Amino acid sequence: MIAPEQVFVVRRADFFGGAWPQGFVALDGEGASLLTEFGRRGFFVDRPEAETKPEWKQLIPYCVLRRPDQVFCVQRKKAQTETRLHDLLSIGIGGHVNPQGIAPDADGVAFLSAALRQELDEELSFVDGTGAAAQTVPAPRLAGLLNDDATEVGSVHVGLVYAIDLPESGRQATTARVREVSKMSGGFRHLAELETLWQNPSRFESWSRILFQAGIARQVGGSGQKAVTRLQSPSAARPEGVKSNENG
Questions:
Q1: How far is residue 156 from each of residues 48, 81, 101, 201, measured CA to CA in Å?
Q2: How far, in Å, CA of 79 to CA of 221, rounded?
Q3: Could you tell me which of 69, 11, 21 has the C-alpha nearest to residue 210?
């Protein structure tokens, strides 16, 4: 018999007094301390059990790849195991945290960063403008926490949102390609194109809808703000201990 997949979870009651913030919450300078605490208090359980227990939150490192005025977008095919996400568009690449070489309670930041890197390596290949393997890839930057308890999937998961900012396309510019094309298709799309698709928000995963509304699809310094301004919504309530960004 094949052993069930083990996934990393935290107890809902251990954080935010059990009342987790909804939507996207920027962590600013508080991210490292939260990830450290996740690593210290989290534990592994069988995934089938975790999927039925909202009192646990499965941590999902979830990365947005951005270029000026563009964001990497994927569409999940029916070959993927998560039937609830079939045919939906997503601007995030991520997955469950499985056991690995780094002990979570020793360094939660490194543990979760390694889990994200493993997921990116499994899902994507990074290449330069000639199609050769990229020599360097910018390090993912932690952007915030993503939670949506209103959906069946969201009630048992929480996203740790990271961003990788890539330069303009060109011969030496790094880009990304989907590895398992039987499971999903994907590539960079202009924000203006996605704004048109946004006329039917149900085409997107709920997490991607939230990130669009938070402006996370726009790379800092890009002109894509015009493409997402209409989608903005009031900031989600911040968890206790997370400071607002006084500098905007």
A1: 11, 17, 25, 22
A2: 37
A3: 21
Residues 6+ apart with CB under 8 A from 60: 94, 95, 96, 97, 157, 158, 159, 160
- Give me the pLDDT at residue 245, please: 34
Per-residue DSSP letters for 190-224?
Answer: EHHHHHHHTTSGGGB-HHHHHHHHHTTTSPTT-ST
DSSP annotation of 113: H
Per DSSP, 172 falls in state T
Topology of the domain comprising 6-231 = Nucleoside Triphosphate Pyrophosphohydrolase (3.90.79)
Q: Which residues contact 127 (CB under 8 A, 6 or more apart)?
A: 133, 134, 174, 175, 176, 177
Model pLDDT for residues 32-48, shown as the tens digit of each residue: 999 999 999 999 999 99
**Ramachandran quadrant class, 178 (left: phi over 0; alpha: psi -120 to 50; beta: rest):** beta
SS3 call for 234: coil
Radius of gyration over alpha carbons of the chain, in Å? 18
State the pTM of this model. Answer: 0.83
> In this predicted model, what pLDDT tens digit does every residue of 154-193 receive, in sequence order?
999 999 999 999 887 666 678 899 988 877 889 999 988 8
Task: Dump the DSSP string for 26-86.
Answer: E-GGGHHHHHHHHHHH-EEEEHHHHTT-TTEEEEEEEEEEEETTEEEEEEE-TTSS-GGGT
